Amino acid sequence: SKGFTLSEIDDVEQIEDPVAAIRDASVVYTDTWVSMGEEDSGKSMDVFWPYQVNEALMSHARSDAIFLHCLPAHRGEEVTDQVLESVQSKVFDQAENRLHVQKAVLDTLFS
Question: For the chain, what is the total number of helices (H) and then of strands (E)?
């Protein structure tokens, strides 16, 4: 498929309904609900539960859709074990690719 740059995006639509947002998606990407260091901030996570990536939500994406997460994932919160460990999940390939990029940056900096 053809890549794109941000300047080629005509408009961005914010969709609050998770099913509508994921419908026919090729890639589903999520992050943690709470950033590192803010776990004890007292913020309620109740508002996030409808956005948990689980098998029911993933069923609305394309059948060949992949799941990505920047890790570390909070299993049972933003993503379920079933999705994280599924054949659709590419999170460990994603992490491995990031590792190689980080090694290349270090190699460049120290060369």
Answer: 4, 2
Report the pLDDT averaged over residues 62-66.
97
Q: Residues with Cβ < 8 Å from 32, sequence gap 6 or more?
A: 72, 73, 74, 77, 78
Cβ 39 vs Cβ 9: under 8 Å:
no
What is the total residue count of the chain? 111
pLDDT higher than threshold 90 for residue 82: yes
pLDDT of residue 11: 74
Q: Report the distance separating Cα 25 and Cα 59, nearest Å.
A: 10
Average pLDDT, the chain: 90
Q: Per the omega criterion (within 30 degrees of 0), is the bond before 72 cis? A: yes
The answer to whether 33 and 24 have CB atoms below 8 angstroms apart is no
Rounded Cα gap, residues 51 and 77, in angstroms: 9
Q: pLDDT value at position 3?
A: 63
Alpha-helical segments (H) within the chain: 18-22, 55-58, 81-84, 91-110
Distance CA 99, CA 83 (A): 22
